[in-house]
Design a protein that fits this description.
The complex is a heterodimer.
Chain A lengths: L8 E5 L4 E6 L7 E8 L6 E6 L4 E2 L4 E4 L5 E6 L8 E9 L12 E6 L1
Parallel strand pairs in A: 1-9
Antiparallel strand pairs in A: 2-7, 3-4, 3-8, 5-6, 6-7, 8-9
Chain B lengths: L3 E4 L2 E4 L5 E7 L5 E7 L5 E8 L2 E5 L6 E7 L2 E6 L8 E8 L7 E3 L3 E5 L1
Parallel strand pairs in B: 2-11
Antiparallel strand pairs in B: 1-3, 3-8, 4-5, 4-9, 5-6, 7-8, 9-10, 9-11
The chains are: A mainly beta, B mainly beta.
Chain lengths: 111, 113
Amino acid sequence: DAKTTQPPSMDCAEGRAANLPCNHSTISGNEYVYWYRQIHSQGPQYIIHGLKNNETNEMASLIITEDRKSSTLILPHATLRDTAVYYCIVRVGDSGYALNFGKGTSLLVTP
Amino acid sequence: DTAVSQTPKYLVTQMGNDKSIKCEQNLGHDTMYWYKQDSKKFLKIMFSYNNKELIINETVPNRFSPKSPDKAHLNLHINSLELGDSAVYFCASSQNRGRYEQYFGPGTRLTVT
């Protein structure tokens, strides 16, 4: 699976959009980009995933650059409950198996 | 209804003891996983089962033995517990081993004294 690089920490004001970047310059054509988050002391939670096209669901939007070497997770209106560690994971879609969690980005949403 | 449940939530035990952690999922998923999160917060895969068949067995001491009585359950048995086994253990499941999202349980915090 391709390696990802994320900033260790970010701050965001409540109600504003949180834009979390992820670099995956060695991504292969059959690798998907997944985002998970872990709120303190809880199990990781799936947010969204995509291959090439931008994706949106009720939680967030995922923007993938045309060359697929980077992506951005967007939380459109961050709330205090969005404070968590966010993990960007790249893996082959049909390989199944495990998720390789890196260090992630610790997002702090402030009042 | 809880999708992925684990018992117990907390487990405190002494070195040398044997303990088990149970995991159940009611999502009808085919694949289940055990992850370990150490004190530095790194989350690493330990085992994965697909339809009761072991498909991943990372470099984990033989003292750790997963058991899947049916595809809704994946239990983790640990023999001769050591101080370094102290961690939070997460169970997860996915529809199958394809590109599907994984659903995690609440975790079991194991403390070995």
